[in-house]
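Why does this matter for the project? Reviewers at the last site visit asked to see concrete outputs rather than summary tables. In response, this paragraph embeds two records directly. Each consists of the residue sequence and, immediately after it, the corresponding structure tokens. Nothing has been edited or filtered.
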Amino acid sequence: MTRYQHLANLLAQRIEQGLYRSGERLPSVRALSQEHGVSISTIQQAYQILENLQLITPQPRSGYFVSQKKALPPVPAMTRPVQRPVDVTQWDEVMMLLDARGDREMISFGGGSPDLTQPSLKPLWREMSRIAQHNPAEMLSYDVLEGRKELREQIARLMLDGGSTVAAEEIVITNGCHGALSLALLSVCKPGDIVAVESPSFHGTMQMLRGFDIKAIEIPTDPETGISIEALELALEQWPIKAVILVPNCNNPLGFIMPEARKRQVLALAQRHDIVIVEDDIYGELAADYPRPRTIHSFDIDGRVLLCSSFTKTVAPGLRVGWIVPGRYYDRVMHMKYAAGGFNVPATQMAVAAFIRDGHYHRHLRRMRQIYQQNMERYTCWVRQYFPCEICVTRPKGSFLLWVELPEQVDMVCVSKQLCALKIQAAAGSLFSASGKYRNCLRINVALPPTEKNREALKKMGEAIYIAMEE
């Protein structure tokens, strides 16, 4: 996070806590510059962010004042799903979301694709071209089952940032994070088993459970601290739960980072009840603050945490390069991978390994963290401007996904169908629930550049929501 972003966050917290009251004049640019030991331009950039968020208002020759309107919408409350095992539904709605990818005219606020337009990706494209020219036989050959060693070595180095010390031999390359999660579930569960999930939870994981005939039990989840340890413990005492799937870092769709103490608590709970934790860390590298947060896997001492991740969100989904660290389930995962025909494409693995080795990956990450945070601020401002004032909005700690809770009478499933006719795609909240809850919520992908076209599309979405409230 840059200095001006850090300062903007600090001032926003002070406004939210009431230290700077509505209508009150803020310290001058020069005074803040001296107080924090930064340049005047840094203060001006911080104030510009707050102005974009409509938290402050400039007045000529007088300075900056706290806006009269409410500073920020409240964060959604702890979710309250029905705590019993259910069969996952919503497949038809997920297919509608996936089908929209084929429409080039669609503005996809509902998808989860990262920004692929940045120049920091150019070294990767050059490396792929070089491999095609100079290693055609190798790129068209069979891969080894566990994946390219040079890539596994680079991933092992990356995992140190999340607190995990693993050898390349402990890592298995997969077909994206989806492939890693599939292998994890196939290795530890059988049809009819029960798996605990956060609520709301990523729809792709939900549909995986449906496909494997595994029941889901949704656990109440706080949008700022994560899954309720107390509710999970109660569920473990009542039901024969086999595993829990967690996205503790830059959660999809709520955006929280689970505090380190709670990560240790959930691991202790898993040890006490002898269950498996499947940890999805696909967004962990996109945390706004550096160093990145630790994984639950980094605290694991008995191999019960299966860590899954990929370069889908940090680099590009088309690479289809992910990985799993299976712990005590390594042999089972390798067998499941072979049974599923899971050899990987050598060319993309070779290119990603070089991209990391040559320092381009970390430069790209630094750029994307900053861009996504700026996008989050801009889109949050637009949501406040164009959506009803009764909304609740998450405060993501990284990544590029924003969760919005609308008034109860709004059915985003119906609104989404209407928006499709306008070539605007929205992800209704019900997609993220096994039982179809959260119909009055939606997830917005802010990786889309904040262009005038996308602003107009979000404005139309807000208009459709207002109409739904009146019906």
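We now turn to the second protein, recorded in exactly the same manner.
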Amino acid sequence: MNKNALFSSYEKLPNTWDEMYCDKKQFRAQYEGFIEYLKNTSSEKLTKKEDLSKQLFMSQGVTFTVYNDNEGIEKIFPFDIVPRIITVQEWDKIERGIKQRLKALNLFIKDIYNEQFIIKDGIIPADLIYSCPSFLREMKGIKVPYDVYVHISGVDLIRNNDGEFYVLEDNLRTPSGVSYMLENREISKRLFPGILPKTHVRSVSNYPNLLYKKLKELSELTNPNIVLLTPGIYNSAYYEHTTLARLMGIELVEGTDLVVKNHFVYMKTTNGLKQVDIIYRRVDDDYLDPLEFNAQSALGVAGIMAAYRKGHVNIVNAPGTGIADDKAIYIYVPDMIKYYLDEKPILKNIETYQLGRANELEYVTKNIREMVIKKTDGSGGYGMLMGHEASDTEIKGYLDNVKKKPENFIAQPILRLSTAPCYINGQLSPRCIDLRPFALAGKDGIDICPGGLTRVALKKGSLVVNSSQGGGSKDTWVLQ
């Protein structure tokens, strides 16, 4: 194969920021080392590497679950072998922006469950908070260690055609995807053993140790008993739960493995009950405690909230953090940054319309073909309307549903997501991507893992990167 044939057939999309090309003729500097490698590697060898990556994912059991797929629910996570490469200057801005944002969001959660100054000062309307399903009255006045509510977060970023990074959404409840970031890097090490050190790519492998350290800091005990609470094998992120528990050396438990006695939480063991000090929970608020939330829940632990209130157990992330990542609240994050930190946002929000406002609903309805509409409490790419792809009948049906409870929906203009080269059918082809960096907060501040999960819309022309909607991922290289 001609050394440059891979690149000569690459069709850069118009009006779109391409991560590899400045223009059709010039590569971005951060890609030069990897491009040199591609130029000296045959397509047969690259295809073998792609096959090897699939085998490695299969043998490691790296899967996710799709709940509405007729073919079966368990799927191997699609992986593209060409990494997404980020410069040190770009990463510095991302890191500063996420730290700023998370500081403000954490202060907001503390304020909302205590004094509520932001409501009293008229920055956020009270009815928006109280009508939000993620607002937990049960959290009012609870003291949390070091005032940290959000210990683990994933902030979704997109790069628009102006080259700037924008925040798509904040994931503060039980953010997932970090195990895929770790696995992607392990696969890259196998596929390109010489290139990572040569290109000076920053390591992500310390994440589990850092997470364990942040969890351990929450207790005054020298060796606190930390467990990871999973909903069980049918959860879409179960692979991640098992991976993180194994890498941290902690017990993976389900609700039935725990019991509350005298406001203390215990784990059942073959030697009797063992007290639990810290719970990294991957169970949603609604299912956490059947005595206080959903009475039908078999996933949580009866009485766990009472133990939490008394300070006998720490729950990570704190219950009620969903108030800060609800899509209706997202609109106000720049105001929060100004209010709590007296700073300008380093990372911008995407322009967002709250459909509970009649004038904004009217505007969105008129411009529906340029809009994406989402449920305020939605996730995983489910329940969205992409205006440019939907039929007239679908649009009418969706808008009829919106008009029943418009305050439960937001709309955003359809953006030109940046593209990155993907190795598809023996060719390099541009596909839309986003980025989810992972942050860990504790008593000593916020640490952000240098990389994150780059998600890829593998269908040509698609803007939806969610794995549940046919997306995949690629390794993210942050250069030193």
